[in-house]
Task: structure prediction
Amino acid sequence: MKKIIVLIVCCWLGFRLSAQQDEQMSIYMYNPLYFNPAYAGSRDAISMTAVGRFQWVNFNGAPNTQWFSIHAPLLFKSLGVGAHMVNDRIGMRSRTAVYADISGSIKLSKHNQSRLAVGISAGADIIGIDFANATVNDLNDPFYGQKLSSTKMNVGAGVYVYGDKYYVGLSTPRVLIEKLKDANSVVQAMNARHFFLAAGYVAKLNSVLKLKPSTLVKFTPNAPITFDLNLSLLSYDILWTGLMYRFNESVGVNVGVIIKKVFTIGYVYDFPYNGLRKYQSGSHEIFLSYDLHTKKMPFTSPRYF
Result:
């Protein structure tokens, strides 16, 4: 039985690295602080975002994830500070992470708002596997009834170039990695190093419509590269509607409503076209963002990301 459980854990680990590439988020363009600390302070407001994802509905043990981030600019946007949190559960495995973010940026041109930002983050990941409720046939199995848990400090880094109508970012949320030594180090190794390349652009079609293509490329060593594509249409600076595609996995739709230029409420539905389509009815994602403008950070122009 021990060999079976170890095999399950190893297969599970491989699945997380090659298929999931860390927690999935279809609405990544609204919460880039989760994977790139250089994004901190890039908006002209104290910005807060909450996201909830309910993946693979009707699939037993499916991922269930919540994110929250907050950040703000300081010293005329030359400095940014923030924090981001995530709570993720899939089957018997759970991960809770809390990180603080700080970034510094410089202007790239005197004629526009383009900036180059470099950021770092620091925090902790708490990862565990609960075998207490697992069904086993051998009561002498060493994993029977155990709860494996590991807390690991880590740091992240990123670079972010952006203007009023575009952005490009490269980051790794976790720089440090753990070598496999024992059962607990297997738990730690589930927090492997990931790399993210994000980019987006806003094109004005006419006086009321704007088109926003964006992508998120995800890479983990010893696993295939995967990517998300999103094409959204903004109508009257109020309503976002879009289509999404995740390589070799799923397609979906998203919609967002901007309320009084400070609130954005949105929803995403994606459905897999791979072998999992037979066992579940898609994934749902909801998000809410809020920009708090102060006298020192007045509203200047619409921000599209």
